[in-house]
């Protein structure tokens, strides 16, 4: 990049995560970030830019509503403008799309300004297995599931908690999160969708929560068990982290433009539970 004025762009992104080693760049591996950055560099004729993303999805996880930002020279954006979206479509592989691109409001940060991320995990308990046309986005569960039992267990997990029992711990990172929504619904015969929404997620949190609820849904554990694991505060070997392919990032929500910078500043602070800090 040169020293000229930069324009921050917001990109809305969708991808099929099946053939990607996740979002984040990794040497020698095909990643969503790598494909997008290479496409931007090619189309804009600039050194490879660095994307900042709302949620760094794992290998195999899909997205319909991913959001990222990138800073590019203002003159480059002025020259490309509305052509950029169509030009990116011409060079990106078919399993990743930029669905919208525009200058971001002042204070916008794709990661830290977000109010919440909403994921959906899809499971089928069809006796004969998953519809072959949906095998890359729906998990097959071999035992029949009871949605009412899973929702009973899910309700006890809502709110702000330390989700250490459902996260892969990372040094120096907080595991305190506000789980705003966790509920199951029947999408079609034998296909169930878990909506999981939080202000942020720690590593493996969604897939561990789903794994615990499936154990309740098929009768292996009582509805009280997931909340007991949460209160214990340590990883439980009985919590199975379900495979990534059933998971899709559906939405990232942001506050009003005038609140973006304040939200980003608040999110950057290290979080602890109030009662734990007393």
From TrEMBL:
Cited SUPFAM superfamilies: Pseudouridine synthase
Binding site for substrate: 119
Keywords of this entry: Isomerase, tRNA processing
Top-level EC class: isomerase
Reaction(s) the record says it catalyses: uridine(38/39/40) in tRNA = pseudouridine(38/39/40) in tRNA
Positions of the Pseudouridine synthase I TruA alpha/beta domain: 14-112, 153-255
GO biological process: tRNA pseudouridine synthesis
Pfam families listed in its UniProt record: PseudoU_synth_1
Gene3D superfamilies from the UniProt entry: Pseudouridine synthase I, catalytic domain, C-terminal subdomain, Pseudouridine synthase I, catalytic domain, N-terminal subdomain
EC number: 5.4.99.12
Active-site residues from the entry: 58
GO MF term list: RNA binding; tRNA pseudouridine(38-40) synthase activity
Top-level taxon of origin: Bacteria
Assembly and binders: Homodimer.
Its biological purpose: Formation of pseudouridine at positions 38, 39 and 40 in the anticodon stem and loop of transfer RNAs.
HAMAP family: TruA (MF_00171)
Family designation: Belongs to the tRNA pseudouridine synthase TruA family.
NCBIfam families: hisT_truA
Identification of the protein by name: tRNA pseudouridine synthase A
Source organism of this protein record: Thermobifida fusca TM51
